[in-house]
Amino acid sequence: MTLVLYFVGTSKEAMEKKYQIIEAWILHEFQEDRILPGEKLPSESALCSQFEVSRNVVRQALSNLRNGGFITSVDKVGSFRAESADRHADSSMNIGLVMYNVDSYIFPKIIRGSTQELSGRGYHLLLGHSDYRLEEERNLIENFIAKGVDGLIIEPVYSPESRDNRDLLEQCEVRGIPVVLLDNAYSGDAFSAVVLDDRSAGGMAARYLLDCGHTDIGILYTDDYYPKIKRMEGALDALAKAGRAVPENRIIRMKAFPNGGFRQAYEAMMDFFSEEEERPTAFFCSSDEEAVGLIRAAKNYDLTVPGDFSVVGHDNWRNDGLESPFLTTFEYPGEEIGKMAASIIIDRIAHKAASFRTTTVLAPNFLIRDSVRNLTE
Questions:
Q1: Which residue among 28, 90, 95, 101 is least enclosed by CB atoms within 10 Å?
Q2: What's CA 341's distance to the chain center, in Å?
Q3: Distance between alpha carbon 318 and the CA centroid of its chain, in Å?
């Protein structure tokens, strides 16, 4: 799995400063525990050579990290990763985690990964689920603030057109309660985040279907959930670049929780199959739940996958209940995402004075299986 760390500054010009690139790299090494507390950092000379910069640039980066409490330096010896900061006496040792759901689909993986990382560092997890309802999410955040949590990990209710609870999360940061976003992350640099490269996944799916000879491709997606919108946009962009623009009647839209997923996909595709006599040879679905709903609807019309049409999903949902086909899809690394978010929140708690924010982007891992027919063979 490829991991890319983007350092988010306060302006485009700030991101272009070379010393911030060095800072981001060192902090990434800390996050991945490749440099442990108390261990020595590479020498100034080594950093100059690695990043092809002057010694003044390296010294600026190290000075900023010292001021933020991340490293200590010993004259004529070198710089060292700081030992974990002492926990304040009034720390609750509790971290709030707000998810859409807690007991199904991809969400238990995230919870498991977060719990493992937090419990290993002496923290406790307080869990809440919003059912993708904005007011419920706000109540959960307010309750966690009242309980005095040390940090908050959240998959926020957010789409480009809807209202959101960004204001309340910004208040958390002002109060010294660091926030890490998962997946459905707001744009901008106000919060740290762990996300998938969803646009790339959509593009990869579309190009794979084209390579398999499919030229009439439909898209089934959730239009009020930002990661799925990006998956759809990536697929449409790749198809357009290949000269295969998707007609409007080939784009089937759904809504997110609580009525999304399998049930709404099934109903939407039942309507589609009843109305469309000429059907696409393939579909890209923005989740495996949607893909399963599509396949179940197709069976009611005596249509088979991949015989009558092919399907690509997303999330590698293993409990889909399908005997066949085994879905071609993208891995959703839930445990890794949970662990990364927990690690970031712990580092933020230990160094509350630091003003930087990071966005960790995971590259798609494409799993080619049985649900796509190669028409070129």
A1: 90
A2: 10
A3: 19
Contact assessment for residue 184 and residue 156, using Cβ atoms and an 8 Å cutoff? yes
Closest CA to 226 of 204, 247, 195, 205: 195
User: What is the rounded CA–CA span in Å between residue 16 and residue 28?
Assistant: 18
Predicted structure pTM score? 0.76
pLDDT tens for the 377 residues of the chain, in order = 334 444 444 333 433 468 878 888 888 888 778 898 888 999 999 999 999 899 998 998 898 888 777 888 888 788 998 876 444 446 788 999 999 988 888 899 999 999 999 988 888 999 999 988 999 999 999 999 999 999 999 999 987 666 789 999 999 998 899 999 999 888 878 899 999 999 999 999 999 999 999 999 999 999 888 899 999 999 999 999 999 999 999 999 988 665 557 888 999 999 999 987 789 999 999 999 999 999 999 999 999 999 999 999 999 986 555 656 899 999 999 999 999 999 999 888 887 777 778 899 999 999 999 999 999 98
Whether the link from the prior residue into 325 is cis, omega within 30° of 0, is yes
Which DSSP state fits 212?
T
If you search the block for the tokens 């640099």, which residue do you land on? 189
Sign for the CA dihedral angle at 372, 288, 299, 233 comes to negative
Whose tokens are 């997606």? That residue is 221
How far apart, in whole angstroms, are the C-alpha atoms of residue 97 and residue 154? Answer: 6
Beta bridge partners of 330: 366
Q: How far is CA 142 from CA 2, 83, 91, 96, 310, in A?
A: 35, 32, 18, 11, 45
Which two three-digit tokens encode residue 96? 């709030």
- The beta-strand segments (E) located in 287-340 are 310-312, 329-330
